[in-house]
Amino acid sequence: MPCRIRSLKVKSQRQSEIFPLHTEKSQKNALGIYYAFFTTPFVKFVKDKLSQLIFIVLHCRICTLPSAVGPMIEEYLIFVFFCGMILSEYQQYKTSPLKYFKDMWNYLDIITLIVYILILILRMVTIARGGDPYHNRLLEVVNYLYGVNTLFLILRFSSILERSSLVGPLQLALFRMCVDLFIILIQFCFVICAFSVAITKSYIADVSYRIPSHTDQSAEIATKGEHHSLIKTSGQLIWSLFGLTSLQELEADTRETTDVVLVLFCIFLILSVVMLVNMLVALLTTTYDQASSNADVEWKFARAVIENQYRGLHPVVVPFNLLSVPGTYFLLGGKEDARKAEAKDVKESCKSYYQERLFPVITERYEKKYGGSFPLSVEEKIDVLMDKLKVLSSAEIVPEDHAEELGATCTGKLAADGKSTGAPLAETEDLESTTTSPPPSTNVVRISCAQ
Prior knowledge:
Radius of gyration: 37 Å
Distance between the termini: 89 Å
Number of domains: 3
């Protein structure tokens, strides 16, 4: 019997060595490994996209269902999701306010939240009023806003393409092209507003010419006429950019007014279609070329920014963060997380070291070396070397047309030596030069380059 007990102890020890998860220490290590995996940026990214996908499915379900005055189950779930989304956006803003507004997707999140707040207010009004969906204008507006919000959410989900090395650089180029498009659209707005006012005034002048001013018909036609409304004229000019406006719609009752309107319309087409559209194409082409020339580096940098952003996010996704965030707060008793406090202390200590010890030493060295002036730039150093190369002595005789080429080669070598040693370019090589007189028959100069 004692031999049996001894053999069982040996067997349990071997099992604990083979399966370390059965021990208490290994269980703590396994829990730590699971928590580290659970809080990695990639896992947070996957969970966030799954949450967004479920959110989009709920909105698509709302968009396909018929209108109803009473609240539906999908609307309750969407409300819970939006509450979690508001909490998540607040945490992101609180973590880094400056970095929050540098991300273009956060602007789309803010617009989505604003639209849903309008939906929530109008939905509460429609529920309080009751009635039937028939001829219910507020309920119709709510459905319009649900469709707009679904559009924004689907566009927001396209940020998953940034992880791809093929589509990610194109998406970054698209963001830059959107900035150029916004600039041209602003110019379009000014042009359309200017010509709309001018054409509308021509129509109103035509009405005043044909109808006596003391009658009410003149004011009514000027404000409610088909061609005399400012909004109507602006709409015609906008659709004319896409070729959807005929010249017959611009005709007035008198020949003179029609000629003036057609001249203004022709000038508008020249400015908008010929100039602004071609300028937009040129801007978009230039922006795409600039983005594609350095696409790989910019995509890697953007991916690193996304990874850093997800590293600071709460590990529990929307809408479950409504439970985890308050639970963590009450569990810690309102105190800051020990790991975050430790990281903050390390950051403050590094900052104090830089300000109190490192920066003063660097400043003192700089003042001893350069005084109160800035060091020479690379271009200025090259200019100094080129001036010195004009008066050089050498054992080799080179024709004059090859002097500049050899001088550029020496300058490139000196620049490379200066960068490799870390010293200023003017101090790396010492070029000793003297004036010589080349034979008149060969028209050459003497050049030496320090090896």
